C-alpha cells in the first residue's frame, strides 16, 4: 500500500505555491518523495518554501497568465528534472471576507467592478488553461502524468451570503459572482481535459476544498462552523491526504473526478 502513495523520483509543479494551501501542497508532495518546483509571483517567498522542503526543490517566479512565462518554466523544469509528472494548478484570486479592500457596497453584485471580474477569470481560468496546455502537453507526449486543478465548494453550490453577517445581523460583505463562476469553470475544464487526454494516460482531477481557517473574523468562523456537519472550518493541512491520493498511483483509475473535501458542507 505504501508504494501506491509513494512519489519518489516524481517531479511536481505547484502554482500559487506560497499561499496558505499552496505551501501545504508543496509540503505534502515533498513528504511523499516528489521533487518540487515552487512557483508563484514572489521569488523570495518561493525560495523560502523551497528551502523548507525535504526533497530537491527549486523556486521559480512565474505569471500563469503570461504564455512566455510558462514556456520558460517548462524549459527550466526539463533542464533540472528531465520530466513533468504532476501539475497542481493552485494559483487563484479569491475576494475573501477578510479582504479589507472589498467593502460592502463594491462587493454587491449590482456594483461589482467588471475589471475585477475579468481579473479573477483571467487568473483562475485562463491561467489554468495556459499552464495545462504547455505543461500538460509535455506529460501527454511522455505517456502520462497527473494534473490536479484546485476548485472549490463554491464551484458546486452557491455562496451562502448569510455567512457574512455579524452577530448584530449586519451584512459586512457579499461573496462575489467572480470566484464561484471561475471555480465552476475549473471543474468543467477538468472534465474536458480528462476526456481529451485519457488516451495519453494523463489523469486530470479537481480537488474542491471547503473553507480554511485563516484568521477570519470570529463571527464568520462561527457562522461557517455551524453550517458544516463536522462543526469546524478546515485546517490548512486537511487536504494533504486527498492531494497525494490524486497525485499518486493510488488513484491510477481516477480521472475527471472532483474530490470534495469540505467537512460535509455540500451535503446540505
Task: Note down, in words, how this protein is organized.
- The chain has nine helices and seven strands; from the N terminus they run H-E-H-E-H-E-H-E-H-H-E-H-E-H-H-E.
- With 268 residues, it is an alpha/beta fold.
- The protein has one domain (2-261): NAD(P)-binding Rossmann-like Domain (Rossmann fold), CATH 3.40.50.720.
- A seven-stranded parallel β-sheet has the order 3-2-1-4-5-6-7, with helices on both faces.
- Helix 2 crosses helix 9, helix 4 packs parallel to helix 6 (114-141) and helix 6 runs parallel beside helix 7 (178-196).
- The two termini are 34 Å apart.
- The model has no long low-confidence stretch (mean pLDDT 95).
Write a concise keyword list for the protein shown above.
268 residues, alpha/beta, Rossmann fold, 9 helices
Topology:
Elements: H1 2-5, E1 11-14, H2 20-31, E2 35-40, H3 43-52, E3 57-61, H4 67-81, E4 86-89, H5 104-107, H6 114-141, E5 145-150, H7 178-196, E6 202-209, H8 218-226, H9 240-247, E7 258-261
Parallel strand pairs: 1-2, 1-4, 2-3, 4-5, 5-6, 6-7
Helix pairs in contact: 2-9, 4-6, 6-7
Amino acid at each position: 500500500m505504501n508504494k501506491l502513495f509513494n512519489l519518489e523520483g516524481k517531479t511536481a509543479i505547484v502554482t500559487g505555491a506560497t499561499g496558505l494551501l499552496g505551501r501545504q501542497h508543496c509540503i505534502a508532495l515533498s513528504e511523499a518523495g516528489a521533487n518540487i518546483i515552487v512557483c508563484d509571483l514572489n521569488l523570495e517567498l518561493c525560495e523560502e518554501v523551497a528551502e523548507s522542503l525535504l526533497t530537491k526543490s527549486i523556486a521559480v517566479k512565474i505569471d500563469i497568465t503570461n504564455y512566455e512565462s510558462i514556456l520558460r518554466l517548462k524549459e527550466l523544469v526539463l533542464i533540472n528534472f528531465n520530466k513533468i509528472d504532476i501539475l497542481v494548478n493552485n494559483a487563484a484570486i479569491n475576494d475573501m471576507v477578510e479582504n479589507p479592500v472589498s467593502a460592502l457596497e463594491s462587493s454587491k453584485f449590482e456594483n461589482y467592478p467588471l475589471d475585477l471580474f475579468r481579473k479573477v477569470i483571467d487568473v483562475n481560468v485562463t491561467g489554468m488553461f495556459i499552464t495545462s496546455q504547455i505543461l500538460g502537453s509535455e506529460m501527454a507526449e511522455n505517456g502520462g502524468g497527473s494534473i490536479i486543478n484546485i476548485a472549490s465548494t463554491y464551484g458546486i453550490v452557491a455562496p451562502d451570503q448569510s455567512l457574512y453577517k455579524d452577530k448584530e445581523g449586519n451584512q459586512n460583505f457579499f461573496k462575489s459572482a467572480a470566484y464561484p463562476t471561475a471555480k465552476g469553470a475549473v471543474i468543467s475544464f477538468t472534465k474536458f481535459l480528462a476526456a481529451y487526454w485519457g488516451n495519453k494516460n494523463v489523469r486530470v482531477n479537481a480537488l474542491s476544498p471547503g473553507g480554511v481557517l485563516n484568521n477570519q473574523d470570529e463571527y464568520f468562523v462561527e457562522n461557517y462552523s455551524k453550517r458544516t456537519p463536522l462543526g469546524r472550518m478546515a485546517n490548512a493541512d486537511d487536504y494533504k491526504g486527498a492531494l497525494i491520493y490524486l497525485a499518486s498511483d493510488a488513484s491510477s483509475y481516477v480521472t475527471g473526478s472532483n474530490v470534495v473535501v469540505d467537512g460535509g458542507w455540500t451535503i446540505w
